[in-house]
């Protein structure tokens, strides 16, 4: 794997058909570890894929500007011009190699009907595209279909949904595809679909979204990223989940035997056919009169939710007569099995079915072992109606017959073993018929809503397979009254698993002042009848718990010489406890007195946790606990236990008298306080009335002032209007005076001119 700059990478990427670009940071330990894995893959696929490494740490470099990288390392794959395809799987060489091989061959060529049937025989969804290459080397839509197969790898790194291509019209007719450029989605449980080109755009994104919206997933792969993520929480919140930790080889051509067994169980669990309908059966057994070995079961099939409504005894005799006279003559001799149906009424919601068979008198060894169980399960003539047994082995169609639907998830045990240990895996479990190097196998059902999970116990080494154990595990969980016991995870599970992996001997026990309890040692220690147990609930992240440690240590030192008092603590964050022993907050201190474990006492929350308070709390609740068997030790007369109880009752009576006197004093004080508050209330009411009167007076003055202010505003407005009118009239007068003045000046000038003209005329006349 060569290291290049960003400019060189862009040039080299256009020259190769498939390229892998490894973005890393030199300081990142994950990058260095992943680099070794990628180099292993590069040694195998260097002739088919171009491997390039880019140091994308420099913030001012072109790589950081062109690529938005949120973590290191990051792997991008390019197929010709399509990309980048972001690899989100584990950074392990087999997984990376498997993903690259799927990018190299995104489509599987299906030349014949046999290969098509083999391609569709898998339980997972398969996509088939039909394109005829007769007219052109690349028919229209083929590149779009190829791009959709590559884009699907962005969402599905495991490659659960595979894409195939058919070029022969005869092969396409096997799946009822006749039109060219057709995309066909094969499904196991529901009807297969054809891409609706009239409703959706025929683009790579449109095809991809359509496939993942409608595909069926029987078993879903989970791969927690190993960092803070809500992947597991999001899946577990959807409902009860069956988590299977299995060995997995991504490069294997065929699925492993264990994975095939799990897939078969999941397919039968989801197969809601005729055997998995919502019909509930209630059956009666009828022994035929002429033969003791011929038995008929009359079952009532009901689609209602009212339960088993079998007819009365008289009607039951009618049914027996019907079976003997109507069904018996239709059965061959010797009788093996036969059925006959009749309607109970004209209602379409119920019918009777009579099924007859012959009971074999001889049983083989395996049947003889199962005979007691069969006798218990077999209905007795005249017995009350019972629910019919599970059909199809009890697992077929169970999804549709229970309200606790399971989701199947598979995890690689080699990558997720710490999670399995946290869920209760305590060692290596190997299934029968599997090679010894197949690795660990672990199965658990997690119900996050009920906050419980169950663990599949170790599989027997002989005569059993994972299928049988898994089916029994699922049936027990789906039963209305499950026999499964809630699994409690404690710190001892993790330590034992780590020691089994590293082959270490357990450390020698050490003498401690405070006993550290775990899930397995909790009940035996706390329920010890000979000891008063002081139990401290804490967690490693609780700061208050750490701050009180010195007080608990001092308490344990003071009680170290007392053999009847034990101080213990339990980390509730790492140890699951039974519901009746859980607390709502930490730290919490409980006292379990000897011989009286049902009278456990909690340290008062309103008292400070100090050494004197703890000692008083322990002495107060543990001094009168005597052994119950001592009542018969002294023969006739009052026993020590009764005397102790009598003394305790006397003390309680005195305490009650003292409490009554204190309560009387408190009531008197409360009465005086009440009188004082009553007088204070009356004074406040008088002051309030005075304030109300002042408030009303002020409001009245405010209204009067507001009225006067409004009148003043009106007068001012009138004065302003009058002033404006006077100014206007003054301006008009000025203009009039100016006009008169101009007219007067013009008249004077005219008179002067006339006089001057007359003078000139008179002068000329003279």
Automatic annotation (TrEMBL):
Superkingdom of this entry's organism?
A: Eukaryota
Which InterPro entries does the UniProt record give?
Thioredoxin-like_sf, Thioredoxin_dom-contain_11, Thioredoxin_domain, TXNDC11_thioredoxin
Residue spans of biased composition, Basic and acidic residues class: 367-379, 691-709
CDD domains assigned to the protein according to its UniProt record, in alphabetical order: PDI_a_PDI_a'_C (cd02995), PDI_b_family (cd02981)
Which parts form a coiled-coil structure per UniProt?
Answer: none
Region: Disordered; residue ranges are: 364-390, 492-511, 690-709, 744-766
Enumerate the spans annotated as Thioredoxin domain.
1-109
| PANTHER family registered for this protein in UniProt | THIOREDOXIN DOMAIN-CONTAINING PROTEIN 11
Protein name (Swiss-Prot/TrEMBL): Thioredoxin domain-containing protein 11 isoform X2
Q: Which organism is it from?
A: Betta splendens
């Amino acid at each position: 794997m060569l290291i290049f700059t960003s400019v060189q990478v862009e040039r080299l990427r256009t020259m190769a058909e498939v390229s892998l670009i490894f973005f890393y940071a030199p300081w990142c330990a994950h990058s260095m570890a992943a680099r070794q894995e990628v180099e292993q893959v590069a040694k195998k696929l260097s002739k088919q894929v171009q491997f390039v490494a880019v140091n994308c740490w420099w913030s001012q470099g072109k790589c950081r500007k062109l690529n938005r990288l949120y973590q290191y390392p990051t792997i991008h794959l390019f197929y010709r011009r399509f990309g980048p395809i972001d690899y989100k799987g584990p950074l392990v060489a087999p997984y990376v190699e498997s993903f690259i091989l799927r990018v190299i061959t995104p489509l599987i060529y299906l030349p014949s009907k046999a290969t098509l049937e083999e391609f569709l025989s898998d339980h997972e969804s398969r996509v088939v595209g039909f394109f005829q290459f007769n007219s052109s080397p690349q028919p229209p839509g083929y590149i779009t279909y190829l791009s959709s197969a590559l884009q699907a790898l962005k969402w599905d790194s495991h490659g659960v949904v595979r894409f195939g291509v058919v070029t022969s019209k005869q092969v396409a007719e096997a799946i009822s595809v006749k039109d060219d450029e057709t995309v066909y989605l094969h499904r196991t449980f529901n009807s297969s679909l054809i891409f609706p080109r009239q409703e959706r755009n025929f683009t790579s994104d449109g095809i991809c979204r359509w496939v993942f919206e409608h595909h069926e997933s029987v078993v879903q792969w989970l791969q927690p990223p190993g960092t803070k993520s809500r992947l597991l929480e999001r899946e577990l919140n959807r409902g009860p989940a069956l988590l299977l930790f299995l060995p997995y080889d991504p490069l294997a051509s065929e699925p492993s035997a264990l994975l095939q067994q799990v897939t078969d169980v999941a397919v039968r669990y989801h197969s809601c056919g005729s055997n998995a309908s919502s019909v509930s059966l209630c059956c009666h057994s009828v022994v035929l009169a002429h033969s003791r070995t011929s038995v008929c079961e009359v079952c009532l099939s009901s689609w209602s939710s009212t339960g088993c409504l079998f007819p009365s005894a008289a009607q039951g005799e009618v049914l027996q007569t019907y079976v003997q006279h109507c069904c018996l003559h239709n059965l061959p001799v010797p009788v093996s099995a036969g059925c006959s149906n009749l309607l109970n009424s004209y209602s379409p919601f119920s019918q009777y079915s009579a099924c007859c068979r012959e009971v074999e008198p001889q049983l083989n060894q395996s049947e003889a072992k199962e005979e007691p169980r069969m006798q218990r399960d077999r209905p007795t003539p005249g017995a009350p109606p019972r629910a019919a047994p599970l059909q199809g082995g009890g697992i077929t169609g169970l999804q549709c017959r229970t309200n606790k639907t399971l989701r199947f998830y598979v995890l690689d045990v080699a990558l997720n073993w710490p999670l399995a240990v946290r869920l209760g895996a305590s060692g290596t479990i190997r299934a029968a018929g599997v090679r010894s190097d197949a690795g660990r196998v672990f199965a658990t059902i997690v119900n996050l809503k009920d906050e419980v999970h169950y663990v599949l116990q170790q599989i027997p080494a002989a005569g059993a397979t994972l299928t049988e154990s898994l089916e029994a595990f699922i049936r027990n969980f789906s039963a209305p009254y499950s026999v499964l016991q809630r699994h409690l995870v404690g710190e001892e599970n993790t330590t034992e698993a780590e020691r089994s992996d590293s082959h270490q001997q357990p450390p020698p026990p050490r003498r401690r002042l405070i006993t550290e309890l775990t899930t397995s040692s909790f009940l035996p220690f706390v329920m010890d009848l000979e000891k008063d147990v002081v139990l401290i609930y804490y967690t490693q992240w609780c700061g208050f718990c750490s701050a009180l440690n010195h007080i608990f240590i001092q308490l344990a030192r003071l009680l170290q010489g007392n053999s009847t008092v034990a101080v213990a603590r339990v980390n509730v964050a790492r140890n699951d406890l039974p519901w009746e022993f859980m607390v709502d907050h930490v730290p919490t201190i409980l006292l379990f007195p000897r011989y009286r474990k049902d009278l456990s006492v909690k340290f008062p929350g309103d008292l400070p946790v100090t050494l004197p308070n703890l000692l008083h709390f322990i002495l107060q609740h543990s001094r009168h606990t005597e052994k119950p068997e001592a009542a018969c030790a002294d023969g006739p007369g009052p026993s020590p236990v009764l005397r102790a109880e009598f003394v305790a009752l006397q003390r309680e009576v005195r305490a009650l008298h003292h409490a009554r006197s204190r309560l009387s004093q408190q009531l008197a004080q409360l009465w005086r306080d009440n009188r004082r508050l009553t007088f204070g209330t009356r004074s406040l009411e008088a002051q309030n009335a005075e304030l109300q009167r002042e408030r009303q007076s002020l409001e009245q003055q405010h209204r009067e002032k507001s009225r006067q202010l409004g009148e003043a505003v009106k007068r001012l407005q009138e004065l302003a209007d009058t002033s404006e009118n006077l100014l206007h009239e003054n301006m008009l007068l000025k203009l009039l005076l100016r006009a008169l003045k101009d007219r007067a000046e013009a008249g004077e000038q005219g008179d002067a001119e006339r006089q001057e003209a007359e003078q000139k005329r008179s002068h000329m006349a003279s």
